[in-house]
């Protein structure tokens, strides 16, 4: 703070029988008031940035742990409009007090001194105010705004917990003014088109972004790896992902017929290499599915009751879910009912099937078991490469220089995974995908997996040729 010399003609202030204030004492009082106002301004500024940056979920956790100040911080966070009004009211009050004190000091002390030095009246008044406002502004910006806010950003939890009780008490003491400001702001925002956004949707989006940010921070701190971060990010999308986006389309459902014998069903199930099969009244018609059977039940029935060849007695109930239901709700149903598969319907018509494995693959990427024998060869062709569906993207990049990047956040490791992600549906022979300077053509498929693909350069491409 710039300290100005006491002018010779500054009079002592006294009252009849009251305390006697000299000019030096008045300067001291004014400086103390100004410094105190800057400090209080810093407290409000720090609290504002800390409250705005801390997550609501974190405050709920702290309140559940009964941390001191957490309950008050949670109430202030949940009423953010009122909290901002409290902070701005406090900053305005202390700013006005500091300005009034500095202005009085300029008028009573500096202006007379400048007049003694021969400065005219108007110029003396302007210079006196400038000599007070300039250093006061610098100090306020530094110690009343920037330093407290930077500290609060680095210690947001500590600042919120320590200051929330006092801020809550202050909000009660100025409640009428806070209510007027909050109501006015809410009304103005409600009238504007940018205030129409759904509060629930905004809160959900904010929560998801906070979760993703926390996962990224944990990965950078090496608390978790890339795969764990991918699982967290993918899990945050389950509630917003409808079943129709990840289900197995109806044309790819492998079914058994209710009229098949156990022996016929055993052979068909063995060739399909699946554990559970929907059973239909009419061969090949998914709209007539009446339940499902487990491969283990077929084997056990053939061993224990070979004289009863009926497949119907082994039927289990098959859950039916709506296509617009979320993946998270489906997962809850499957876990609670101890099921692994469910039919997906839209307006009463079966359009696909969902399995527990499909949902897990949304979290961790493609899962292949010991029966998913996918080729991993990578051979040079005339103008490109012939690649097995299970060749890894890293091997493809190292050997050919073809760098296929995932377009989403789900982990992608093989060529088959990459093709399925880019298509957004089960692949079919003849499907073509262009990525940069390369065209990927699906040549062979098995079930819903790519067995073989052809990779060639797009004509007139400026990309360098692939390595031999």
Strand residue percentage:
5-15%
Helical/strand content category = alpha+beta
The major sheet is characterized as:
5 strands, antiparallel
Helix residue percentage: 40-55%
Strand order of the largest sheet: 10-11-14-13-12
The dominant shape is elongated
CA radius of gyration: 36 Å
The tally of structural domains comes to 4
- In N-to-C order, the SSE pattern is EEHHHHHHHHHEEHEEHEHEEHEEHHEEE
Distance between the termini: 72 Å
Show unreliable segments.
1-15
| Strand count | 14
Mean pLDDT: 81
Count of separate DSSP helical elements: 15
Summarize the structure.
With 468 residues, this protein is an alpha+beta fold. It has four domains: 13-190, no CATH class; 199-236; 244-364, Roll (CBS-domain), CATH 3.10.580.10; 378-457, Uridine Diphospho-n-acetylenolpyruvylglucosamine Reductase, domain 3 (2-Layer Sandwich), CATH 3.30.465.10.
